[in-house]
Amino acid sequence: MNAPLAGLHALVTGAGTGIGAAIATALAANGARITLLGRHRDALEAHAATLPASAEALVVLADVADEPAVATAFAAARERHGELAILVNNAGASISKPLAALDRETWDEILRVNLTGSYVCARAAIPAMAAAQNGRVVNIASTAGLVGGPYIAAYAAAKHGVVGLTRALAAEFGKKGVTVNAVCPGFTETSMLDRTLDRIERTTGRTEEQAAQALLARNPLGRFVRPAEVASVVAWLCRAESAAINGQAIVVDGGEVAR
């Protein structure tokens, strides 16, 4: 069996559904032992049950921006699977509001989950990786981390921050054997996309198909990204042959940002 990540411990945040679940599946298929971290036990356990026995899937609960909770979850993960070799910061949240309606509480929450959560988990994982002179960190950012857009000021600011964090950590830890990269998906077939389409329908009176076509208007492929396509890039970044890839923001969007 081709298992390039065999023996390696991978922890994925926000791993119960969507892109996070697809990433856990891809890493398990590459032979890694998997820890699934999130806030909703039912979703995490349901996905853990789909992974192969070789993954020895472990579910741990934590809010990624809660440092004590993350420390407890990481300790449980290490007790089961040993030190982390791979961290995927996938947990995130989005909201669409015009600036006038973007209250401070919402702003703080979007940055807390997307940016502070990535910082907290990276800080919990990277020192031991650096000591071992080996590790992979992949931050799931977004095309909104590279370009702006109306009504997504908080989300774009947070994801731009994730890309900046990625580059800074890559520069700091590359010489210690730890690579840090970001993957930037475009509109992907997840519940987050469903909420976006629903909002467009409610606010514009468009049908679901019309809402989808509005989002796809600048996409050369003419379709949304699939979670497994994002996951395959993450798995590739974690493999030995990708050791020279560091500090990059790799776009998976069908060519939308390129236009």
Task: Outline the structure in words.
It is a single chain. With 259 residues, this protein is an alpha/beta fold. Helices cover 46% and strands 14% of the residues. The protein has helices at residues 18-29, 41-48, 67-81, 104-132, 153-173, 191-204, 208-216, 227-238; strands at residues 9-13, 33-38, 58-61, 86-89, 135-140, 178-185, 249-252. The chain has a 7-stranded parallel β-sheet with strand order 3-2-1-4-5-6-7, with helices on both faces. Strand 1 (9-13), helix 1 and strand 2 form a beta-alpha-beta unit. Helix 3 (67-81) runs parallel beside helix 4 (104-132). The longest helix is centred in the middle third of the chain and has 29 residues, at 104-132. The protein is globular, with a radius of gyration of 18 Å. It starts with 8 loop residues before the first strand and ends in a 7-residue tail after the last strand. The model has no long low-confidence stretch (mean pLDDT 95). It holds the Pfam family adh_short_C2. This is 3-hydroxyacyl-CoA dehydrogenase. One of its GO terms (molecular function) is oxidoreductase activity. Belongs to the short-chain dehydrogenases/reductases (SDR) family. Keywords: Oxidoreductase.
